[in-house]
Amino acid sequence: MFLDSHINEECCGCTACVNICPKNAIKMITDSHGFSIPAIDEDLCIHCDMCRNVCDFSKENSWSATLRAYGMHHKDKNILQSSRSGGAFYMLAETMIRNGGSVWGVAFDKSLNVVHIKVTSLDDLKRLQGSKYVQSELGNAFSQIRQDLIYNKAVMFSGTACQVAGLLRYLKKKKTDTTNLITVDIICQGVPSPKLFDDYKTYLETKYGKKLTAFNFRDSFRIGWKGHEESFLFEGEKKKHYSTQYANYYYHYMRKSCFHCQYAGLHRPADFTLGDFWGVNEKYPDFASSEGNSIMLVNSEKGLSFFDKAKINGDIIEVEVENCLQPRLKSSSQQPEGYDMFWTEYETKGSSYCIEKYGKATFKAKLIHLVKPILRKTRIKK
Ligand SMILES: Cc1cc2nc3c(=O)[nH]c(=O)nc-3n(C[C@H](O)[C@H](O)[C@H](O)COP(=O)(O)OP(=O)(O)OC[C@H]3O[C@@H](n4cnc5c(N)ncnc54)[C@H](O)[C@@H]3O)c2cc1C
Ligand code: SF4
Ligand code: SF4
Ligand code: SF4
To answer: Nearest-5° angle of CA 201, CA 355, CA 14?
Structure first.
């Protein structure tokens, strides 16, 4: 366990230990790769061990198994296009908001940091749409959620499975009634470092001499929902810039704990698990949408009854779980070759060097990004 061993890869950064500590003796600090890890102030610690008991990442997976699986795409084309996959998240979240509850999810703040925020209106819900390929900053989300639950308010929390597991274990240890809580996790191959993203933003601002005002990690406008192309906007400009530089290099440089992820399977902490429905065209061609498709796993009875309320806004098909077992529903990502070498270069040669070296697109990828927008434009015109 990280709190004893201090081996960074044994901590996923869920913040449960920080929230549970009765003496506020734990703070999240940043490690040399830019990830948050807990640090105990020994002067304040009373050795109650609550932090060790709440830590789910060091325990065996005892979460329940998936009950049912669905393919879906949102009925509203605008929502479908602004979502990463098929808009499953929006469908669940709008139901929560329309019923007077709040929704926690991942957004950009004003400085384009990736953070967890709470929203209570459909207007603000837009901020949570789309995948942000960076580990989010949770802040004091867990204790705020607990306060709302204590006052019998309905809450939805969405995040990675390790964040959901951390929240649930924290609430259980605090003996909080979770009847009014719905949890949503994403199929997850791992989270990249906030420091790499910060350095990439600085790199772009220096290169173009302008201030970034918006960033989209996966813009489907030119190449469709299956592609991977980022877009960004500078102050005073209306025309987006497109690139694959961040996408090319970030995949390989995720949090080390993600290579030992116990949630990469069908035993999940959340009521719902959402992901890209890879293979939908082959397995369910009559259902597949060219604009995006979600896979939704429902993992609890509470999830099934919430799904009954939410499904009205989606085109939905029940599917066999075996037909949607993508790699991250079988096992965790593998640490890529050269991982440690990358970080050594990052420390010795600097971020710009690494962005240019590792962000280079292969010839095949360049070709795809040249041809796909033209094909897509032609298809849309038809
Ligand atoms: C880091 C990361 C890795 C992923 N890996 C895979 C994968 O291997 N296979 C796969 O099928 N799908 C993966 N996904 C999930 C997928 O990209 C979509 O997020 C998911 O299908 C939901 O899409 P949607 O259309 O329902 O909703 P959208 O509106 O596109 O998704 C928004 C949801 O994603 C959450 N979210 C966004 N960024 C983060 C973040 N940094 N941390 C936690 N939650 C976040 C929001 O809180 C919200 O719940 C990953 C997502 C992220 C963020
Ligand atoms: S042992 Fe108790 S007091 Fe000490 S850091 Fe952990 S939770 Fe806080
Ligand atoms: S509770 Fe979460 S943040 Fe704390 S040590 Fe365990 S995994 Fe890390
Ligand atoms: S891969 Fe696992 S440990 Fe890493 S962020 Fe995703 S759920 Fe958490």
So the answer is: 65
Report d(CA 223, CA 257) in Å as an integer: 32
Quote the pTM value. Answer: 0.94
Best residue among 37, 188, 332 to mutate for probing ligand 4, ranked by most atoms within 8 Å of CB? 188
Please tell me if the CB atom of residue 192 comes closer than 6 angstroms to any atom of ligand 1: no
Mutating to test ligand 4, I would choose from 162, 267, 333 the residue with most ligand atoms within 8 A of its C-beta, which is 162
What are the tens digits of pLDDT across the range 304-360? 999 999 999 999 999 999 888 999 999 999 998 889 999 999 999 999 999 999 888
Coil/strand/helix, residue 370: helix
Domains contained in the chain, CATH given: 2-54 (3.30.70.20), 68-191+254-329 (3.40.640), 194-252+337-381 (no CATH)
Q: Which ligand is closest in space to the CA of residue 262?
A: 4
Which positions ≥6 away from 149 have C-beta within 8 Å? Answer: 155, 171, 176, 177, 178, 180, 181
